[in-house]
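Re: the request from the purification team.
They wanted to know what the chain is likely to look like in 3D before they choose a buffer screen. I agreed to run a prediction and write the result into the notebook, where they can find it.
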Amino acid sequence: MINKELNQREYLSLQDEAYLFYNVYDKAQAGTKEFIPPTFKRINLIWVDDFVTEVRPLAELQKLMSSKAMEEGHPVFVSLCLAQTELDSYINKFGFNNSSVIGLSREMFTPYDATFKRLPKMSLSFGQVFNADQVLYFYSPRTYLPSEFTGKFQVVNF
């Protein structure tokens, strides 16, 4: 762990420098990146698993992404089944990277709730990821949501 007195010194110790180097190197080699939540007032969460698995036609997702509703907030693709690198590839493959789409992948799900109580399933609490003053709209291609998605958000079916 990096020394807490680091910001009081003018230089890094060799131990801190080695820790930083190898930590960043490992993340770069693994292709992982940190999820940085957008700071927009409105967030449009779009559940994309039905499109990835081709249960629903991609044209429906493309129509949603070109709609007026997407212009009112920042789009975030959410997936229960894709890893971050796979979700990024999907975003790039179909040209959604032109609309600043970012992804919330399966790595963001946890078996704990907000009080660190162990749950019998993986879940993602959007209230823990986004700020309380942000308005969350969850766009779902289904009439129901799985119980893995928790938090305060408005569901929009498309």
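For the purification team: The radius of gyration is 18 Å.
Please add any questions underneath this entry.
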